[in-house]
Amino acid sequence: CGVDGSVVSIDAEVDAGKWVRPVGFDIKVGETLVPAGSLVGPHEVGVVAAAGGGVIRVHRKPKLALLSTGDELAEAGEVEPEASSGRIYDANRPMLAALARTSGVDDILDLGRAPDEPGALAATVARAHA
Question: Which distant-in-sequence residues (6+ apart) come within 8 Å of 72 by Cβ?
Answer without folding.
Answer: 86, 87, 88
